[in-house]
Amino acid sequence: MNLITGATGIVGSHVLAELLKTNQKCLALYRKETRKQRTQNYLQLLGFSPELIEQQIHWKAADLFDPAALEQAFEGVKRVFHCAARVAFAPSEDQAVLETNIKGTALMVDLALKHKIEKFAFVSSIAALGSLDGGMLNEKSQWNPEATQTAYAWSKYLSEMEVWRGQEEGLDCVIVNPGIILTDAFWRRSSGAFTQRAKKQNSFYPPAQTGFVTATEVARAITTLMSSKIQGERFILVTVNKTYKEIFTALAAPWGHQGPRKRLQKFWLWIFYYGEYLLGIFKLKKRVLSKGLIANLFSTASYDGSKIEQMSDFRYTPWGESIQLLNSRANWGKS
Ligand SMILES: NC(=O)c1ccc[n+]([C@@H]2O[C@H](COP(=O)([O-])OP(=O)(O)OC[C@H]3O[C@@H](n4cnc5c(N)ncnc54)[C@H](OP(=O)(O)O)[C@@H]3O)[C@@H](O)[C@H]2O)c1
User: Fold this and answer.
1) How far does the centroid of ligand 1 lie from the alpha carbon of residue 161, in Å?
2) What is the pTM of this model?
3) What distance in Å separates the CA atoms of residue 6 and residue 62, rounded to the nearest whole number?
């Protein structure tokens, strides 16, 4: 049995789809009935029959803050795909992001050790790799505690430390560090906002460049690693390094838009940042901008995602094909 946390999210739902392809049994954790229903609908859009979904996927309500429910979920589990996390960047979310991601991962690792599970996959992020100062980052890149980082990046870095601690204590594990994950559905959350923005024809683009990959590719990579003998390694999952402008433009095509034209100026973001900061002191507005987020929007990092191809059977789908597939499903985001 495979246990999937965050099964109602972008990555988790794609992991379910990948496991369904090989008829594997899954125990999918969820929190809200509506999100569970939406995930089941999405799996049907992908072509899986309601009968297969019902037969292969068992659902269990469990929050990462509920050790008793998680303990029960581990019964009979052999492999864990830990995809759940709070993905948010607003300073008002910082505390919740740190607690959910670090404590949730520590608890999952403890339970995996206790139940002697065979293998544990953790979905980290390129955010946990550290430096944003240009150049090519790889799996050996060191976290830089001095750099301006988001709380989310800290949470992913410290979650990885929990997984490595588990490995020291005997847990077989793999970590993946995906770039920004593009998806055709679940638009209103996490990186789903990217496709949403492309649809709405944003005028402005931040000048950043970073690594991108699709959710389908992430799920394929994780399941490949989990079926392999590889353990104790982390893998960057990035198909291409591109600017936000290039990605927004590629995703705008199905909506007949040309993509954003105006470069976002840092100066205006700082004015917004300090305006919000002042209003925040008087509790008149919840802040959405942080120094870490501004740094991200103006960074030009590149990521080398080739290690997984060198060490496993996984091969990236050509980027053009991935974008074509995403764009052909553009209106699925309504689901
Ligand atoms: N999206 C990206 O661009 C990206 C890039 C790199 C790495 N990642 C990583 O990929 C993983 C999945 O992210 P995603 O993009 O799939 O995010 P997502 O769509 O927001 O999904 C997050 C999942 O985690 C669940 N979750 C959140 N808090 C929870 C809690 N307290 N207890 C139990 N479940 C909880 C959510 O449940 P509900 O549905 O009930 O809210 C949802 O199923 C995360 O580890 C993230 O850091 C994402």
Assistant:
1) 18
2) 0.94
3) 10
